[in-house]
Amino acid sequence: MFLWSLVVLAGLIGVSTWATGIVSIVPAIQDLQDNPGAGYNPWTIATLFDAYFGFLWFWLWIAYRERSVVARIVWLPLVLLLGNIAMAIYMLKVLWSLPPNAGVREVLLRPESA
Is the pTM value of this prediction over 0.85? Predict the structure, then answer.
């Protein structure tokens, strides 16, 4: 899981940097506004729903796992704005905090002490 989180984080930062080098996100969004048909493709909308439901699903796990209300609030916009980048960072945070002999239970469930 640790290696996969690192691969996801590196891959997403890499592809985001590459894409930004070709077209900045601001003109890309403006292009969608200038070309209304591009933004109203049913599959584009379905993909956005799928992605954001996944982001919210992951955040619900964060909200369950984190005892601090502040942490829950901070992680929501991070996940919604950064998507899988924030999710990979959170997963690395969780994995780094675990003892060497931890199992899946310690990863998924709320820590006993906090």
Answer: no
